[in-house]
Amino acid sequence: MEEPEYKEPGITDFPWDPVLGEINVQTLREGSETKLQCEISRYFPDNLTVTWSKREKGSNDLVNVTKYYNCKIPDLQHVKQQDHTYRCTASLDLTPSLESDHGAEFICRVQHPSLKGAIERRTEPLQVLACAPRVGNIIVPGQLQCNQLAELQCKISHVQRDNVTVTWSKIQKGKKETIDSQSKAKYYIPDLTYKKQQNHSYSCSASLVFIPSYELDHRAVFICRVQHPNLKAPIERRTKLLLSSPQVQAPGKLETTGKEEEAQAMTVCAPHVGDIIVPRQLQCNQSYTLQCEISEFHPDNLTVTWSKIQKGKEEETIDSESKEQYYIPDLTYKKQRDHTYNCTARLNFTPSYESDHEAEFSCRVEHPSLEEPIERRTEPLEMVQTPRKPGNPGKKDKTMRPWAPRVGDIIVPRQLHSNKSYTLQCQISQFYPNSLSVTWLKKQKGEKETIRLQSSERYQIPDILQEQQEDHTYSCTARLVFTPSYESDHGAEFICRVKHSVLKEPIERRTDPLRVKNPRSWW
C-alpha cells in the first residue's frame, strides 16, 4: 500500500461465535421416528461442523451416532440473516428403541473457526415409552386338505425378546379348548423365533402346525392369544370358520388301515350326483317317480331335499308328510367295495295339470364334504291329458287339460236383402274350460277401423249357450242377428273374435264383403 487508506470495519471482518439453544426433545415412543433438534444462530462465516453423539445408560463412553442404524443426520441448511450472520437447525432423526435408547443421553457438539474449542448441548436421559406389540391376522393356507400338513401363522412385531406369550386355542361346535402341543400329538406349536428390526425392536411369527381331520377341525375357529407387558389386556386374533376340504379318493382307492373307524375319521368323499330321471310321458292322475342317482360318497350322512318351482311362483319345498300328492321314500345306502356309498333319491307323485304342468323339480344334496349343496333340476314338465272317452258327461274332470277352441268360418246367408232379418253364425268347438268370450265387429266399406257391435235395433247378439260334450270339452255357436241396409252394410265385413284362457291371442274369423241387394234395382 503506497498511501495510507481508511476503512470502516464491518461484521464480516470478524468471525462471530455461534449461539446454541437447548436440544428440543419430543415425546419418544418405541419404534416411532422422531427428531432431536438444536437451534444454532448468530455465527459467521457459515463453515459450521455439527457432530451428534450418544452415551448409553450406565456407560461413560460417547459413541458417534453414525454407528447406529436407527439414527440419521440431515444436512445443515445455513440461512443468512439481515445482519449477515447465519442460523441453522441441527437435527437428528431417531427411531428410538426401548432396549438401547431408554435412559441414554444425546449430545450435539458444534465446532466453528471463531471458537477455541467445541461447544455442546446435552439432553436429559431419554424416556422412551414402550410400544404395544402389533399382531397381524392369522394366515390360513388357501385350502385345508384332510390328512395333509397345514400351518397357521400369526405375525407379531414391535416387541422385545422373550417378553411375548402366545397361546393357541380352538372352538368347535360351541366348545372351546386350549391347544397344548405337549399333550396333543395332533398339534405342534414351534418356539417363537425373534428377528431384530431396524428400529431395534423384534418381530416373530406364532405358528400352529397340525394335520386337519374333518371330524375335529371342519368349521372350527382357531384363536391366537398374545400377551405382553405393555398390554392392558391380551390381543386375540381369530380365523373364520375353517372348511376342511375332504381328501377325495377315486372309487376303489379309498385308503384304509384295516380299521373302518379310522378310515371314516380320516377320509371324506364328495358325492357324485346324476341328473334327475323323468319318465318320457306324464299323464295326469297316474303315479310316477322322479329319481336321482347319488354315488361315491363317504360317510353315509347324506341329506336330500326335493323342491318344486311353478311358473310365476316361488320355489316350494316338498314335504311328503303334509302333501298327499307327493311321497319321498327314505334313502337306502348301499356300501361299495371301496367303502364309499351309493343311493337313489326318489320322489313319487301323481301329477295334475293345474299344479304340475310346466313346473320344474329340483333335487338338492347336502353332505359334510361339500361347502355348497349340489342341485339337479328337471326341465319344465309337460303334462299330457287327452280328452276322455265317452262316459258320464255330468262328471267334470278337474285335472282336464285346457284345450284351445276350434273356430269355424262364419256362415252367411246366400242372398241378403235390405230390411229383412238374417243370422250370421260361427261354430266353436272342442274347448276346455268353458271360459269363452265372443265379440262381433264390423268393418265398413272403405274404412280401416273396425266397430264393435252392441245389441241394438239393427243388431242383436244372443247369449252363447256352451254345451259340454262326452269328452268333457265344450261347443257353442256364436250368432249375430241383423237387418242389413244397402247404405250401411253393402261391402262391409263382419268379424267374429274369440277369446279363451288357453289362447295367447284371440282367434278371428271374417266374412267376405257382404253383397246386399239394392232395393231400387227391384223396379
From TrEMBL:
Lineage: superkingdom: Eukaryota
Entry keywords, A to Z: Immunoglobulin domain
Transmembrane residue ranges: none
Record InterPro entries: Ig-like_dom (IPR007110), Ig-like_dom_sf (IPR036179), Ig-like_fold (IPR013783), Ig/MHC_CS (IPR003006), Ig_C1-set (IPR003597), Ig_sub (IPR003599), Immune_Resp_Modulators (IPR050380)
Matching Pfam families: C1-set
Domain Ig-like residue range list: 9-127, 133-207, 271-375, 405-478
UniProt xrefs under PANTHER family: TAPASIN
Listed name of the protein: Ig-like domain-containing protein
